Amino acid sequence: MAGARIFFQSLDAAIFLFSRVSDIPPESLVLPVISTNDRLTLGCELRDGTIIRGQNEISHPSSGTMEPVKKVFPLPNAAVLEQLYNVDCIVYGMGSLFTSICPSLVLLGIGEIISSRSCLKVLMLNGTNDRETNGFSASCFVTAITDALNRTYGEPCNRLQNLPSQYINTLLVPRNSKISVDVNCLSAQGIFDVIVVDSLLDPRVGIIYDPKSLIRALADLIERYMKSRVNGLIDTR
């Protein structure tokens, strides 16, 4: 896909070509959260002002000196914002919390749209902690995602003050997860719907969701949500 991006000078075109070649179903839409041909490098600023550059350096910091960096806060892909306005369910997938999930959430407009939607907002909890989340409980993941969407540590003029429950209302947990599910703390955050999904033990990465059980759990959630919407419409007539 990297070659296609260079050839077409467009990430969107490269994704489209890859989707066709890979025979990804046409109803499956893959959108980059940032659509640009510029080279962007993930970075973070520590509390003491130190700037770390590069995903690997954030996850696996070294003692080496860091190059000077120019802070860039790109705008999100307009197509992503449009989809967020219209989807029936928003799912925060598994992944590296601070170098994969949160960077896509801190962009301007993302938190505003998600908090305004009255739809399913599902967090898929990881099965095990990694170097970025050592010692984290489920509520810590919720706090980190809330802070990212609120841009809590960004420019004061861009900060939001939304509650965790405005971003997440359902938590999926793989059975036998190594991450503590602190139900009382989740309740204090306004999250009461915690669903345990059957899991598998992957010898390389640990506990993961059983694919069929995960699909069924998401389908059941969406069906329940759609029925509640229909019942709500009937009650108001």
UniProtKB/TrEMBL annotation:
Residue ranges crossing the lipid bilayer per the database entry: none
A family per Pfam: CofD
One of the record's GO molecular function terms: LPPG:FO 2-phospho-L-lactate transferase activity
Tree of life domain: Eukaryota
Protein name: Uncharacterized protein
Top-level taxonomy: Eukaryota, Viridiplantae, Streptophyta, Embryophyta, Tracheophyta
